[in-house]
Design a protein that fits this description.
Helix content: over 70%
Distance between the termini: 24 Å
Shape: globular
Number of strands: 0
Largest sheet: none
Low-confidence stretches: none
Length: 234
């Protein structure tokens, strides 16, 4: 797994993908932070994280669109499929490389929060709750993108399908507000990433949301492994 992780992480910076993602993330993060915090002259960061969560539905597929689809197109996946490495090691290594780049960008952009005390009292619980929620949602999004990439041959198709799936995960929570039937509304809220995000954004540690994000991440990584497990048997 370590070899796969290092190779994938190096691949992000030996091609424009890593640089483009980082540049767009920092540019967008800076713009959103300025509009929601600096220009508003407030120490509240809830709006910033909400907008960045929405932006992640488009940005994170940039990291996963070629994870497996490019190897399928070039027919180079047989190399590691026949190598003495477990499928879990391959999938986890690729996922962790994308997660490292994403988390690194989040941490660097978070340095802007150092100026928040100039605009009022900083609520540490809300700040760290939002950070944790963003990282957990990012892990889920990357796992979804990794799975979709394993199904696609074309990178663009992988990115588009991933964006659609992520928007669906966010949208079911908004859809619930239009549903009067409580059991259905409860199910929609339970499936919504956005609904799970809101608890952390208020500084409330929600174990159910933590389990939800980690479970979804594990499920989609497992599904990715199963995709290649079935291909090995063919």
């Amino acid at each position: 797994m370590k070899a796969i992780y290092r190779r994938e992480l190096h691949a992000y910076f030996s091609s424009p993908v890593g640089y483009v993602f980082a540049a767009v993330w920092f540019l967008l993060s800076g713009a959103v932070f300025s509009l929601t915090t600096l220009f508003a002259m407030t120490s509240s960061v809830t709006s910033y994280f909400t907008y960045m969560l929405l932006a992640m539905t488009v940005l994170l597929p940039l990291l996963t669109m070629k994870t497996f689809s490019e190897e399928r197109r070039q027919k180079t996946e047989q190399i590691w499929q026949s190598a003495p490495v477990s499928l879990w090691g391959v999938v986890t290594g690729k996922f962790l490389a994308a997660m490292t780049l994403f988390a690194g960008c989040v941490c660097v952009s978070s340095l802007a929060f150092l100026i928040l005390p100039l605009y009022g009292k900083v609520k540490a619980g809300i700040l760290f709750g939002n950070l944790l929620a963003l990282l957990l949602a990012g892990a889920t999004f990357l796992a979804v993108g990794t799975f979709v990439s394993s199904l696609c041959v074309n990178q663009l198709a992988s990115a588009v399908v991933t964006v659609a799936v992520l928007l669906a995960f966010l949208g079911v929570g908004l859809l619930s507000s239009f549903v009067s039937f409580y059991p259905l509304r409860f199910v929609l809220n339970a499936l919504s990433v956005f609904s799970r995000f809101s608890g952390f954004s208020q500084g409330v540690f929600d174990p159910a949301a933590l389990v939800y994000d980690l479970s979804l991440t594990a499920i989609f990584l497992f599904l990715t492994v199963r995709v290649y497990d079935r291909r090995r048997l063919r």
